[in-house]
Design brief:
elongated, mainly alpha, 138 residues
Length: 138
């Protein structure tokens, strides 16, 4: 089943078949992770379909019974005010970089742009470059 899934994942416009096979092989993947503890690179080679956005959301829902993306965004919205206060309290060079993020948020009415600014601010606050986050995802 895993080999067939590997072949199906490489085909185009095969999303429904891959989704069905991923549902059927969930127990096998879980057992493999718990028993063997494979390295991420090896796991990606064996289960490439698992690392697609739609399948990540589906796998999270299989494990937690909650939708990943909507849960993440609702929690981000819930904590955005606290995060903004945290960003404003930060001083020094890092505080200066965060100040530009805060001013961008103040001038924006779009919810998605505000969420993007909060995520960028978190990256800066933790000493990471926000450009690296997007590059790693792509």
């Amino acid at each position: 089943m895993q080999r067939a899934l590997l072949l199906d994942a490489k085909k185009r416009n095969n999303r429904d078949i891959v989704k069905l096979k991923m549902e059927k092989t969930f127990a096998l993947r879980r057992h493999e992770v718990v028993r063997d503890g494979p390295m991420v690179e090896d796991f990606m080679a064996r289960w490439p379909a698992l690392f697609e956005v739609a399948e990540i959301n589906s796998e999270f829902k299989r494990i937690t019974t909650k939708p990943l993306q909507s849960k993440f965004l609702s929690q981000l919205d819930l904590h955005s005010g606290t995060l903004m206060k945290l960003f404003q309290k930060r001083g020094g060079q890092l505080g200066g970089r965060l100040e530009t993020i805060i001013s961008q948020m103040a001038n924006c009415d779009d919810v998605d742009a505000g969420r993007e600014s909060i995520i960028k601010g978190l990256c800066i606050y933790m000493g990471e470059d926000p450009k690296d986050l997007v590059r790693e995802y792509v």
